[in-house]
Amino acid sequence: MKRILFTALMLVFSIGIYASQELPLEYFIKHGDYLNLKLSPDGKHIAARVRHDGRVFLAILDSDTMEMVGGVKPFNNDIIHHVSWVNNERLVYEYAEKQSYIDSPVPTGELFAVNLDGSKNEMLYGYRASDKSTRSRISSKENAKASQKVLSLLENDDEHILIIEYPWTMRGNVYYDDRVKQPIISKLNIHTGRKRKIDTLPHGSSRALATKNGQVKFMTWTDEKGDLHSAFRDNNDAPWTPLGEAFEQAQGLTPLGLSEDSKSLYLSGRYSEEGIHTLYSLDLQSGEYTRIFGDHKTDIESVILDGNGMPAVGITYPDKSAYEYAAANSRIKTIHKKLTQAFEGQTVNITSSTKDRKTLLVHVSSDINPGEYYLFDSDSLNARFVWANSSWIDPRTLQPMHPIAVPTEDGETLHGYLTLPPAGQSKSAKPPLVVLIHGGPHQPGTRDFWRYDAETQLLANRGFAVLRVNFRGSDGYGTRFERLGYREWGGAMIKDINDAVRWTASQGLVDSQRICAYGASYGGYAALMSVVRAPDLYRCTIGYVGVYDLQYMYSESDIPNSWGGRTYLKRVLGTDAQQLKEYSPIHHVNDIKAKVMLIHGSKDKRVPEINSEVLAEKLEQANNPAEYLQYAQAGHGVFDEENRQELYQGLLDFLNEHLK
């Protein structure tokens, strides 16, 4: 224990705060350099996705020397966006391609394989698979107008993997990966790309779980009403049985993973009146269910598996990150407790390991640490530093996120984070405040977390206090809290945001006369709706790819064309035309006193630019013209770094003009 603690203390940056200094803008708008690392099964090599010069490369590193021994260089501004080790010698990876019509790379659904030294780089699967040259005159590959996901690495088969194929749907002249058609289970050769159909699942949008030998035993799907269903079968030749019939008490539980020995299953579920997300285990022989973690107040956001592939550690965020440990003893559980002591005050995750679990790849991060990787020897308890993401950032120059809890008039508690600028950064006694509103608002993971956030740190570095609040409707606090936001997009949710701003101002830490609202997607909507509801509270507001007429969610967005999308909108927005109008900023421009900035990408399909165009026109008519940043090649958010530089410089100029 002393050795690991000493090693960590020698390697991790101290968190003392440097004297106030303005960091270059590009520090905060550049995409990360080392995006993620994965350890090979034998631990001799590390697969790294590395960003350089606008592209994301695959680099294979010797884990002892950290020298590059192989890799893949993508074309143009393409990126490699997912990588997995199949065995010690070969990897599979997926591409996201830079298209001429949009600035962010688009996943193609194709699958490639390469040896660790960079040789035998082959496209295995995809809509262009047979177009690629092979050593044979006759291609063994088929063009598949579908996307895929690897289901099983087939432990005792070095030649094949098991995949699930999701056929695309053609509408007009365009193919869409809408998960409507029945998925296909196939065995795929990792050298030739030849595949053989194993089965077809009966429901569109199905997810599946397979054993190490390729038996697809569990299936989960979502119906058009948005309800989840699961089924079980003994083997690939057996009929499917609803999970509740095969194993009692399965209602509301969704299979997530199988143990290494295929004797246990872990499932996603809820407990308590709050509907807090947690995990359960199912003994497939006895049919006994067990809740894996004890009581916790917020959802389990991620898990670390033990040596048998079952959850050992759950990571949750009641304010800062916290850990829940499974009752069953495991070596991973013991090691993780030691790691959290060594890296006290940070979030510790074990992202991959060798097959024997002796060597672990550990990721450490916090509100002021963008992320560091360590190789950890579980025998010697030594941690060896590997890499720091966004390595140009010195954590000592960043500002901590302080957890806050805000009581509401109706008895709820809103949790969030307040980040203050460095002492002396603001010329006045109290800094101006920017409330940074998250998007979503109801999808999994759409909440504010205690973790490194580049926008928060940029604003703090420039002298602004930053408030982030998890208003009702946010994920992470159970289904009851989330459902409080349904059909309240412009009502109780906005009231929560404005009440949190008033509460923060009342604490005496910020200037209550200099406040701006800013957010993207739903956050962009809320930034405009907040100044509608509280016109005297804000000096300015910034809407980034926001929806400003809720009717457009039905008529212009891509959501209604997705599986279950229209049902989702009816559930969270409703169809009351009068309420949709009342909750739309576009119909309240005369109530907006704040100065307005609008930012939008012309290729945005989720929230089309017509939202900003019409709002800008109406603000012009109301003699409150908006400052408008338009990006012709951007979708639902600006990806290109040169454009991001312009965007954030414009945003800072706008804030300085109206708050400083």
Automatic annotation (TrEMBL):
Residues 450-660 form the Peptidase S9 prolyl oligopeptidase catalytic domain. One of its GO terms (molecular function) is serine-type endopeptidase activity. It comes from the Bacteria. InterPro entries: AB_hydrolase_fold (IPR029058), Peptidase_S9_cat (IPR001375), Peptidase_S9A (IPR002470). Keywords: Aminopeptidase, Hydrolase, Protease. Gene3D superfamilies: alpha/beta hydrolase. Pfam families: Peptidase_S9 (PF00326). It comes from Marisediminitalea aggregata. This is Dipeptidyl aminopeptidase/acylaminoacyl peptidase. GO terms for biological process: proteolysis.
